[in-house]
Amino acid sequence: MRVLIIGGTGIIGSCLQKTLAKNGHDVVITTRKSDARNDSTLLVNLEDISESVKTIRNAGKFDAVVLSAGVSSIRACRVNPEATSLVNVDAQVAIARELISLNSPKLVLISSNRVFDGSTELTKIKSAYSPTTEYGRQKSQAETELLSLGTTVKIVRFSKVISEHTELVLDWFNKLSSNEKISAFVDMAISPITVDTAVDVIERVLLAECDPVVQFSASDEISFFELACVIANYANSPLSNVVRQMAQDAGDNAIAHSSLESSVFSSIKPMPSLQSVHQIMEKITKS
Fold it and tell me: Which of the 8 DSSP states describes residue 116?
């Protein structure tokens, strides 16, 4: 199978590329780096939609395409909604339409639990959109427009995806290892899964029949404060270095819940949040 990963150098995209290539698939990725000019890497800047579509069109036929690029910063989307919507919505839809018009490959959009307001645990797949942020609004719009393009489109919603390269986790670990203090929200829930789990879900969607919308999160939830406490233990830092903080004090909105009703896969089971965190911290401390 020939697969195109839009955003192949991100945390999810790079891990997916390695996994698919290892399993015998022909994988092409896109990147914004200007030195990318070879058969397996395309230079694509989603801010230039027409040029992006042209580059992808000229790359030949693909059996499947994963839309994994975009602006995921809540603050960036809030501060510059027009520019971020261009990338998160307009570019995704334009690329999807072009590819479907050529040969209708399976198209997979990586989406987020932020299309919901976080008012309930284990939000059901068919729940109505209720975003409370500009980022969530953009993702829900992208989902809606892409699903209208036909049955070859699939949506994969994740909660927080973490890896040994996650900036927040590394920043907290390094600061705590240096005996510095950090602040962490006590009123904002996360339901983290590892990037390896996320890739397993995406690969399953690419290779097998599935519902139009797939969701996956941890089986429970923790706060950012609880996450920070685990990181402190791995950094051999006293828990007093983790300072409790309310989201509103930092200009953010509290999120009561973040977990999703996970789609049922026989070989992929949701794990507890702390288990995901421990797996990532083991990789960080052993590297």
Answer: S
